[in-house]
Amino acid sequence: MGALLQPKAGFGRKAAMRTRNRFFQKIVDFVIEDRASGAILALVELDDRSHDGLHDRKRDAITASAGYRTIRLPAGRLSMTDIATQRQPLQSNNAGTSVSATRSGA
After folding, report:
1. Which of 5, 28, 63, 98 has the fewest CB neighbours in a 10 Å radius?
2. Does residue 70 sit within a domain?
3. Residue 51 belongs to what domain range?
4. Contact 9, 48 (CB under 8 A)
5. For residue 19, how far is the Cα from the chain centroid?
């Protein structure tokens, strides 16, 4: 997530480092972006049994405060209906753009 997020300007050095350390080494499973502009449309997290709901909500709050939408999907096999249901709001909000999912190390 360090490639996607930066602490807000105006923090002192210690506060900026403390804030940055909250997300710097965290990983996002996938990033969905607009092919034409490169704009990030959503972050995708694949949740398995190891995920903690409270931890995930805090993490989602961090990414939401930076303007990113997080889509959480159960790890494992997904039906085309499940994928279409999650994809629909992205298409509605970005009419006329093509969407691609890329594997992220961010």
Report:
1. 98
2. yes
3. 27-103
4. no
5. 18
